[in-house]
Write a structure and sequence with these properties.
Number of helices: 3
Distance between the termini: 55 Å
Largest sheet: 2 strands, antiparallel
Number of strands: 2
Radius of gyration: 22 Å
Length: 100
């Protein structure tokens, strides 16, 4: 199988190759050099190794509205929406301090 390198030095890996590797959207590909060339392996996130924030969030805290959060970060929000996006004072992350 031959693939073409485009002007941005990017390569499209055919779907049948990704399917055979078991690669899924969001996976990373690990590239390692071996004696016979390079080897591609899919790398998935092992969710069991990630820490949980469940015990760090106060009961009753509403889910984060990511769209409003991004608007706030970009400065495109109304002032009355900003108060809804701050962490409660009692739940500030110790490493970040009070940045509300």
């Amino acid at each position: 199988m031959i693939v073409k390198i485009d002007d941005n030095l990017q390569v499209t890996i055919p779907a049948q190759v990704l399917d055979a590797m078991g690669a899924k959207p969001g996976d990373l590909l690990e590239i390692t050099e071996g004696p016979d060339g390079f080897i591609l392996r899919p790398r998935r996130i092992d969710h069991s190794r990630l820490g949980t924030l469940r015990d760090k969030i106060a009961p009753g805290t509403p889910p984060l509205d990511i769209r409003k959060f991004r608007e706030r970060r970009a400065g495109r929000h109304r002032s009355d929406d900003a108060s809804k996006l701050r962490w409660p004072q009692s739940r500030q992350c110790p490493s970040m301090g009070d940045k509300s």
